[in-house]
Amino acid sequence: MKILVALKQVPARDSILEIDSSGRTFNHTGLQSEINEPDAYALEAALQLKDQQGGEVVVLCAGPEEAASSIREALAKGADRALHVLDDTLEEWDPLSLARLLAKAAETESPDLILTGLQSDDTGSGQTGVLIASLLGMAHATIVMKIEVNGRTLKVKRELEGGWFQYVSMPLPAVLTVQSGINKLRYATLMGIKKAKSKEVKTLTSKSLGVPAGHKVVLERLSLPRKSKETVMLAGSPAEQAAQLVEKLKFEVKAL
Amino acid sequence: MSRVLAVCEQSEGVLHPMSLEALAAGQCVAKALGMPLTACLFGAEMSEAAGKLARYACEAVVCLEHESLALYTADGTIEALAAYVEELRPHMVLFPHTYRVRDFAPALAARFGKPLVSDVTAIRATEAGLRFDRPLFQGKLRGEYSAEGPPPVFVSIQAGSYRADALEPGAPAVESRRAAVDPSRIRQKPEPPFREGAREVDLSAAEMIVAAGRGIHEESNLRLVGSLPS
Fold first, then answer.
1. Is the pLDDT of residue B125 over 60?
2. Which sequence spans correspond to the domains of chain B?
3. Tell me: the pLDDT tens digits for A5-63?
4. pLDDT at A127 over 60
């Protein structure tokens, strides 16, 4: 079985982001990068399937030159080879055109299964996996917790809302978007890191794939969310105070 | 006439609470654009959910019915809604940003050559056109987006962004239609949803939470706690 894992390199979770003078992007200098967390779980799920059933794990990553470090990390963990769609402008692409680019690159591999994270920690559109499936005419399932492959059929456990789950079966080829935390991420071994250096990384471009940038949804302006420390005394009877508190938790801080 | 369509969600006749928030967003946007609002539901039997939606102002509540939509599947839903959107040609399609919507809405929008504007916290009418606010980097930044090209624009609304209790009341007609679904094209075969062990209680999904501490003193007093939610 050939499994393709689409992963994205994103700024590390603890990064402090400064909006640049254009107001449309942030200052990238000095930022640490990492594999998008849900994608790391997708990679681990792929490696576990390979451990059980054999086959090949191919990593697909679209991004600038710097994304090579995330690709090498995935190869060091056990992926067999990688496709790097090299482009510096992807931040400006809308989610559909980005998915077209990834789908076109994925198509060159004819994978049985495509795994990716359910969303990225940066733009968080949460669309890439579903769109790749739609563009390639494959079945899909999202927010996947468990994957079983039986021949040409796939059975997955999906997380629904409110503590509910569901098993769904579908034929291969298929695309799954994986929930974070579904498995235990492995570390790259020293041997793995050494081997990764000689593994094949094929470079593609939007031009070579014939996919132009799309700008149907455009980021016009970035801003920092309003942050303020404010003490408010709630007045009234206990019932009135409780109602005001619920109101604030629900609509001001959105904690409920 | 161009209109706003709010696609609402129900399961086994129970309306998803975020559906009312999507409807509230629909009322706001429809008013700002001077367009009528239509609400729609999809599923097998949904008269109860439709009844709840029909308490609020919109032109109609349309139920897209098909027995193969009883248990949700992405393929069935995309097909049913794509046919309806194609026929209705709305200016904007709004969804609540639920787990289910994340599963089908991007592919539905792609059928119309559009990306979904997902997880939107506010839709604002400006001189330059509509602007959609959404969080980025897990809420560290806020992005203001525009949507280019011909309609429809597909938008999912984040929980708590529009208020269900601010909905304008109304009495729209409820219309049932047979959804255009070919069951043989549905590739996902779902099993009935289930809950995991008792420890997996999801407090965020509870309609009401009653907390009791040591002050309750005796086990026999726990009956009082049990009686409080009613």
1. yes
2. 4-185, 198-227
3. 999 999 999 999 999 999 998 988 889 999 999 999 999 999 999 999 999 999 999 99
4. yes
Judged by CB atoms closer than 8 Å, whether chains meet at B115 and A127 is answered as yes
Q: Is B60 exposed, middle or buried (0-12, 13-18, 19+ CB in 10 A)?
A: middle
Q: Which residues from chain B sit within 8 angstroms of residue A250, using beta carbons?
A: 160
Residue keyed to tokens 């594999």? A35
For B182-211, what is each residue's pLDDT tens digit? 999 999 999 999 988 655 566 777 778 888
Chain A CB within 8 Å of residue B118 CB:
yes
Torsion of CA A209, A110, A59, A117, to 10 degrees: 100
Question: Where exactly are the structural domains of chain A?
Answer: 2-209, 225-256
Q: CB distance A250–B117 less than 8 Å?
A: no
pLDDT of residue B134: 96
Of A143, A168, A220, the CB nearest to B190: A168
Q: What is the residue type of A205? A: T
**Under CATH, to which class is A2-209 assigned?**
alpha beta
> What would be the CATH architecture of the domain defined by B4-185?
3-Layer(aba) Sandwich (3.40)
Searching chain A, which residue's CA lies closest to the CA of residue B103? A142
A79 contacts A200 by C-beta, under 8 angstroms: no
